[in-house]
């Protein structure tokens, strides 16, 4: 019989592959089966029963969403009985549904409205005694149980895709509602995915509530610019008052296939405004003319990066961007062993994987999208996930199979141990073999605190796995032994069936690292900051010396974590000057910034296509039609592994530079809805070692600078590492994320 | 009369006749004679007499605007009105934004927010009458019969900005309390006997 199943739907011969349901096959073949609770990215909720179909020779109705076909069956999607059944289901949904469509936020894009009209329901014979249902306010999310139709999409998404598992169904017949799990109020990462999937107006954004209607908003498809994932999103804009300019009202996404974290969904109001002030422009030109270097962040487009690179060549400036420089450094070492310029895995590979190792990143806050992919893999494929990090993460607790705790600073040793374990039964060339033969396993295990048994357990977990992914994160980029770590990662990728995903820091770290020729950051005089600190600051910030548009106000491209060139579109207008105007004054002329899209260097994989020819949407079945994938580039394989250096020790109080949930950078810091937790968070053990207590104002020494923070005791943390947010301090990713630090209480 | 009669475009035939018109004067002397004849003929007094006669008779045929106004048809579409609910005297507008969306001259603007009672509140509502073409789409689309046209066609003001704010359109509360709000019978209004056609939702409990 093989792996395909032949059957018919409404007389049409169709073929299913193993594991597909009748509904999936029908959709693939363009045959319509109505659904209410079905969502492609989760397992079927099977709560609405609207997708019922008839199968010849089988009594009763079959749910097409969770039934796989068998060979030779004849499925009928339409009959008088089915129509009656569906109409009755819709009538039951409509019982006591408040008639507030005129004001409801969902009106106009409501599945209940659509389906009620689709089945031609004009009257109702069912009734039930209505109950008192009070609107719940859960921070940025509002829940109205009266509008809820109990499709359970939100619960499935929260559990299977996001991994917060924060809401559940409270069963009680007609009185069923959605409630926060084990809590009075909602306590989650506030990704807002439940709002997105809600087919009615039950779960809505409290900020958006009643401020506009679906039919008034224009959608601008773009790419999220907060973290390196580059998620697809749509800005919805409208005039913000009687005679006012346009404003972004909310962000939506194609929730059927893609997910968005709370920063993308609620952190959209980071736009700035300026006018064309000739005098200020001339002043800025003068400063740039006399500047010796430009320091910039990776939260810029590829086109801007190319302009900066051209300015460097023309004006003899230096370009500082530690984040991208260190990433490029890492990738160079990687390429010298793997022979490829770009890593091979993408987020889709994680979603489909069944064995995943995550190392060197607190991934739930560094890149929520990677976390969602991990959750999806764990829930849908039963993927075994090994999470190696010096700190446990409560957010990952439900997802991770094995937590491998290593000592701070021993990443090189851990990578060597991992590689040694994963490459055990592989044929290696002599040099590599010699490297592994020479490893002092006892020393590495003792210093990194990773036991034999842990590695053995990992191997056992992965025994039957077929699709494996190694995820390497930002802790590695600024590590003293970054070269060797990258080479080890490349060796694992090369000799095993693991593919490699590298999690960069910022939205366009990859793009900048490919386009710009960066210099080592020095403490020079005459440094102009472009979205970064400097003597004279050009930034998308009201307080900057010269204001340029933010990433939701300009067109351009960024390179996301999947090595995909993703287009950004301008949701809002900007009336001031931009980098292109400054560059044009120095005879690097182009009419628009996007004229540079086709000039992006093809030697590193860009395709040289016009910006206007880039698409930005997800296809009917979730195919990613955004921008294009970077071409793979061959590199010279001349890298040799070095011997593992002595592993450093980090004793006493250690500070880990990591942001709280939903905060990433100065742009998310500016937004109205996102919570700003700027406290230093640590465990009780940390407090004891540092001799501080909850609520103390403390001074932290970070290398040669100090920072003042309020200390917050966090019950969910353990050990002597405290978490220090970076989103408000302009941290440039230039130093190793763990720092030995002296902490003094400010009296 | 058959259609052919209308379709006959040959105006030279039928009941047409030529009016006898004097020859136009050509010489200067003839022109002078015509002026004198017209001036002293007393035709002027014929007209003056008609006016005087009608003035004495008080048989006036013109509308004495603005003291007197013609009745306006119920479907006349002049300046908009915002209606109140009979039951509670509160505003009917729910801020759905349909009128703003449908407006083909893009002259309606509104802003809404959630108020302290968790209801949708219309915070700003204006119609730019300078742009409005009085097409009546807003009244037709309004699901609450909140915005309607009125017969109020007299608009004069010193400033364009006076056209037109929500308060001017809204039925004044004292008029409402006195029960004097007029329902619009024109475009978008409910048809007569609508009550009889309504089917009630079953409330079996």
Protein described:
The complex is a heterodimer of chains A (747) and B (205). Chain A is α/β, with parallel strands linked by helices. Chain A has 5 domains: 4-78, Ubiquitin-like (UB roll) (Roll), CATH 3.10.20; 111-266, 2-Layer Sandwich (Alpha-Beta Plaits); 278-325 and 518-629, no CATH class; 344-502, Dimethylsulfoxide Reductase, domain 2; 654-745, Beta Barrel (Barwin-like endoglucanases). Chain A has 21 helices and 33 strands. In chain A, strands 2-1-5-3-4 form a 5-stranded mixed beta sheet, with helices on one face. In chain A, strands 15-14-21-22-23 form a 5-stranded parallel beta sheet. With 205 residues, chain B is an alpha+beta fold. Chain B has 2 domains: 10-57, no CATH class; 80-190, Alpha-Beta Plaits (2-Layer Sandwich), CATH 3.30.70. Chain B is built from 8 helices and 4 strands. In chain B, the strands form 2 sheets. In chain B, strands 1-4 form a two-stranded antiparallel sheet. Chain B has a two-stranded antiparallel ribbon with strand order 2-3. The longest helix of chain B has 15 residues, at 43-57. Chain B is elongated. The A-B interface holds A 102-103, 107, 123-129, 135, 209-213, 215-216, 239, 241-243 and B 94-98, 100-101, 109, 111-114, 118-121, 124, 126, 143-144, 199, 201-205.
């Amino acid at each position: 019989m093989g792996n395909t199943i032949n059957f018919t739907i409404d007389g049409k011969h169709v073929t299913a592959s193993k594991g597909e349901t009748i509904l999936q096959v029908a959709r693939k073949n363009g045959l319509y089966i109505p659904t209410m609770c079905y969502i492609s990215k989760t397992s079927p909720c099977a709560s609405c029963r609207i997708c019922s179909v008839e199968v010849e020779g089988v009594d009763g109705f079959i749910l097409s969403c969770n039934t796989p076909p068998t060979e030779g069956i004849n499925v009928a999607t339409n009959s008088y009985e089915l129509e009656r059944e569906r109409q009755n289901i819709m009538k039951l949904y409509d019982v006591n549904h408040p008639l507030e469509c005129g004001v409801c936020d969902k009106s106009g894009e409501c599945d209940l409205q659509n389906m009620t009209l689709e089945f031609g329901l004009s009257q109702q014979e069912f009734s039930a005694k209505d109950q008192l249902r009070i609107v719940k306010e859960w921070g940025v999310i509002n829940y109205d149980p009266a509008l809820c139709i109990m499709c359970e999409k939100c619960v499935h998404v929260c559990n299977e895709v996001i991994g917060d598992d924060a809401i559940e169904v409270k069963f009680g017949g007609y009185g069923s509602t959605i409630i926060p799990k084990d809590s009075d109020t909602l306590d989650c990462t506030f990704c807002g995915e439940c709002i997105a999937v809600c087919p009615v107006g039950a779960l809505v954004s409290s900020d958006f509530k009643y401020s506009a209607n679906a039919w008034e908003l224009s959608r601008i498809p773009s790419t999220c610019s907060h973290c390196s994932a580059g998620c697809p999103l749509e800005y919805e804009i409208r005039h913000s008052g009687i005679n006012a300019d346009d404003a972004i009202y909310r962000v939506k996404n194609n929730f059927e296939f893609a997910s968005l974290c709370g920063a993308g969904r609620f952190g959209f109001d980071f736009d700035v405004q300026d006018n064309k002030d000739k005098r200020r422009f001339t002043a800025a030109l003068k400063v740039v003319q006399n500047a010796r270097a430009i320091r910039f962040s990776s939260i810029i487009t590829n086109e801007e990066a190319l302009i900066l690179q051209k300015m460097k060549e023309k004006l003899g400036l230096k370009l500082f961007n530690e984040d991208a420089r260190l990433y490029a450094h890492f990738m160079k070492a990687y390429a010298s062993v793997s022979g490829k310029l770009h890593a091979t895995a993408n987020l889709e590979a994680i979603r489909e994987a069944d064995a995943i190792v995550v190392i060197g990143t607190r991934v739930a806050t560094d890149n929520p999208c990677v976390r969602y992919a991990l959750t999806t893999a764990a829930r849908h494929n039963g993927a075994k996930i090994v999470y190696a990090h010096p700190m446990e993460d409560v957010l990952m607790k439900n997802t991770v199979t094995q937590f491998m705790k290593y000592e701070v600073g021993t990443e090189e040793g851990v990578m060597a141990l991992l590689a040694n374990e994963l490459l055990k039964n592989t044929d290696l060339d002599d040099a590599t073999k010699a490297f592994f033969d020479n490893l002092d396993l006892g020393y590495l295990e003792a210093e990194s605190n990773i036991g034999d048994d842990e590695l053995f357990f990992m191997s056992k977990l992965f025994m039957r796995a077929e699709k494996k992914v190694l995820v390497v994160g930002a802790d590695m980029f600024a590590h003293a032994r970054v070269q060797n770590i990258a080479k080890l990662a490349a060796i694992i990728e090369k000799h095993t069936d693991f593919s490699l995903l590298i999690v960069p820091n910022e939205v366009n770290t990859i793009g900048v690292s490919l386009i710009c020729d960066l210099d080592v950051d020095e403490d020079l005089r005459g440094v102009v900051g472009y979205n970064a600190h400097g003597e004279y600051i050009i930034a998308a910030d009201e307080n900057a010396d010269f204001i340029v548009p933010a990433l939701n106000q300009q067109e351009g491209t960024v390179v996301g974590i999947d090595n995909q060139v993703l287009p950004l579109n301008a949701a809002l207008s900007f009336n001031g000057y931009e980098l292109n105007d400054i560059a044009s004054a120095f005879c690097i002329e182009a009419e628009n910034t996007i004229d540079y899209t086709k000039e992006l260097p093809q030697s590193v994989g860009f395709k040289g296509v016009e910006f206007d020819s880039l698409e930005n949407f997800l296809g009917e079945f979730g195919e990613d039609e955004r921008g294009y994938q970077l071409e793979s580039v061959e590199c010279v394989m001349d890298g040799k592994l070095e011997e593992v250096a002595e592993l450093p020790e980090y004793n006493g109080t250690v500070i880990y530079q990591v942001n709280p949930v939903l905060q990433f950078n100065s742009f998310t810091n500016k937004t109205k809805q996102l919570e700003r937790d700027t406290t230093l968070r640590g465990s009780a053990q940390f407090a004891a070692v540092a001799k501080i207590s909850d609520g103390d104002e403390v001074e932290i020494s970070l290398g040669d600078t100090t920072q003042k923070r309020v200390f917050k005791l966090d019950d969910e943390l353990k050990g002597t590492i405290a978490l220090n947010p970076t989103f408000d301090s302009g941290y440039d990713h230039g130093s190793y994320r763990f720092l030995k630090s002296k902490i003094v209480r400010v009296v | 009369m058959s259609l052919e009669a209308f379709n006959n475009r040959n105006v030279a035939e039928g009941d047409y006749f030529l009016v006898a018109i004097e020859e136009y004067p050509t010489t200067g002397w003839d022109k002078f004679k015509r002026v004198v004849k017209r001036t002293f003929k007393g035709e002027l007094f014929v007209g003056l007499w008609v006016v005087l006669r009608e003035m004495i008779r008080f048989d006036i045929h013109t509308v004495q605007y603005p003291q007197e106004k013609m009745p306006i048809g119920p479907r006349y579409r002049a300046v908009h009105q915002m209606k109140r609910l009979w039951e509670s005297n509160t505003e009917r507008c729910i801020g759905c934004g349909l009128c703003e969306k449908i407006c083909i001259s893009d002259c309606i603007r509104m802003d809404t927010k959630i108020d302290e009672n968790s209801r949708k509140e219309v915070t700003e509502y204006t119609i730019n009458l300078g742009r409005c073409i009085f097409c009546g789409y807003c009244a037709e689309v309004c699901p609450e019969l909140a915005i309607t046209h009125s017969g109020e066609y007299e608009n004069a003001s010193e400033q364009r900005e006076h056209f037109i704010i929500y308060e001017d359109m809204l039925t004044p509360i004292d008029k409402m309390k006195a029960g004097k709000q007029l329902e619009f019978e024109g475009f978008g209004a409910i048809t007569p006997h609508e009550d009889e056609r309504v089917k009630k939702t079953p409330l079996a409990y």
